[in-house]
Amino acid sequence: MHVFRSMIIEAPVAAVWSAVRAFDGVASWNPAVVKATMETGSATAPGSIRHLDISDGTVFRETLLELSDLDRFYTYDIIDSPLPVRNYVSTHRFVPITHTNQTLGIWESRFDCEAGQETELAAVVGDQIYVGGMTGLNDFLKGQRHE
User: Fold this and answer.
1) By the 8 A CB rule, do 104 and 6 touch?
2) Contact, 106 vs 130, CB < 8 A?
């Protein structure tokens, strides 16, 4: 299954990438994440594992698979989560919109799930996690501009 969401983020790509590039920095901008800690490695080293405490009490454990400062993206997989998915790999990418000095945020994943769960998982992963996270990122960056 493939889930894809994109959103205009009202900040320059350098500011967006600065906010998101640390794998354990997600709690500062994603309202669903209460706490993010590195279990192994460092926040920008492929192979490192992060532990996420989610606001609903669930836990996600994820591995940073790839990070590119040049192309402004990171790719990760899920080791443990409450989601009924297998082989989950996701990429969060940021592209400059040069005309307006904004950023196009793209968050997508591929994973396996049981037949019949596709619609529900597209809504949970795509809308709740991806759109919710990018909306939180946009709000976080707008708040930084007003401080």
Assistant:
1) yes
2) no
Spatial separation of the C-alpha atoms in residues 108 and 147, rounded to whole Å = 31
> In this structure, what token pair is assigned to residue 123?
């809504």
Residues 6+ apart with CB under 8 A from 134: 5, 7, 9, 105, 107
Q: What is the pLDDT of residue 112?
A: 97
**CA atoms of 5 and 130, how far apart (whole Å):** 7
For 23, 60, 73, 127, 144, the CA distances from 38, given in Å and listed in that order, are 8, 12, 19, 26, 25
Q: How far is CA 43 from the centre of its chain?
A: 14
Structure-token pair, residue 8: 């205009």
Chain segment 64-84, per-residue pLDDT in tens: 999 999 999 999 999 999 999
Q: How far apart are the C-alpha atoms of 43 and 24, rounded to whole Å? A: 6
Structure pTM?
Answer: 0.94
- pLDDT, position 144: 77
Where do runs of H (alpha helix) occur along the chain? 13-20, 26-29, 118-121, 132-145
Percent of the chain with pLDDT over 70: 98
